[in-house]
């Protein structure tokens, strides 16, 4: 490999899940079939060679497997790319959470100080995602990467790259990461360490143009 070279990591949030509106974390929901069909119709016939990495949850993995089959890209899963575990409330429809609304409000305002019952803490989630991010950096030394993961994971990576305070609850609300959107990060691998550049953030998949 050259002494100095660059790669691209594309982070795609999964499509709309077939699940009631909820705090959907570790719960392994399937994908909405209509959303999946619309997405597959927008996939280019040909795409630049890259490697695929996916969360093992089926709302991500199903998309990654389809791309792997279509483009003959190698695919691997990273458990550390799973969405945050919201504990007792994970996957519960918001309509069933009315008795706990005060607790949820405190969590949304200050998740670092107000973890949810039996849930992964914000610090645990942040450390897990940073570990996954380091793995992605290492994997990108030889190939561009296409990563299918979750909104919380992408927000955490973007916050890290922007040196933002990940403890602030409103930080995660400022990043609108829609279903199926793609964020693009360019990495220069140098002997002194990687250099990052945010190229595009949360572009709808129908508007995204792939560049080698």
From TrEMBL:
Pfam families: His_Phos_1
SMART domains to which the protein is assigned, alphabetical: PGAM (SM00855)
InterPro entries: His_Pase_superF_clade-1, His_PPase_superfam, PGM_Phosphatase
Gene3D superfamilies: Phosphoglycerate mutase-like (3.40.50.1240)
Stored PANTHER family: BROAD-SPECIFICITY PHOSPHATASE YOR283W-RELATED (PTHR48100), HISTIDINE PHOSPHATASE FAMILY PROTEIN-RELATED (PTHR48100:SF1)
Name of this chain's protein: Histidine phosphatase family protein
Taxonomy of the source species: Bacteria, Pseudomonadati, Pseudomonadota, Gammaproteobacteria, Aeromonadales
């Amino acid at each position: 490999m050259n002494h100095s070279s660059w790669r691209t990591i594309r982070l795609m949030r999964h499509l709309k899940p077939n699940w009631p509106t909820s705090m959907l974390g570790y719960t392994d929901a399937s994908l909405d079939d209509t959303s999946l069909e619309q997405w597959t119709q927008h996939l280019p016939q040909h795409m630049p060679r890259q490697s695929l990495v996916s969360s093992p949850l089926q709302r991500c993995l199903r998309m990654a497997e389809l791309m792997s089959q279509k483009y003959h890209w190698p695919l691997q899963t990273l458990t550390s790319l799973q969405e945050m575990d919201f504990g007792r409330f994970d996957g519960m429809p918001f309509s069933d959470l009315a008795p706990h609304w005060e607790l949820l409000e405190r969590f949304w305002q200050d998740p670092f100080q107000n973890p949810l019952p039996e849930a992964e803490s914000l610090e645990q989630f942040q450390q897990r995602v940073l570990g996954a991010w380091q793995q992605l950096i290492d994997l990108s030394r030889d190939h561009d990467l296409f990563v299918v993961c979750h909104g919380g994971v992408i927000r955490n990576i973007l916050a890290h790259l922007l040196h933002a305070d990940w403890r602030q609850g409103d930080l995660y609300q400022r990043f609108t990461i829609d279903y199926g959107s793609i964020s693009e990060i360019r990495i220069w691998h140098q002997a002194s360490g990687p250099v990052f550049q945010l190229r595009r953030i949360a572009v709808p998949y129908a508007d995204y143009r792939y560049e080698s």
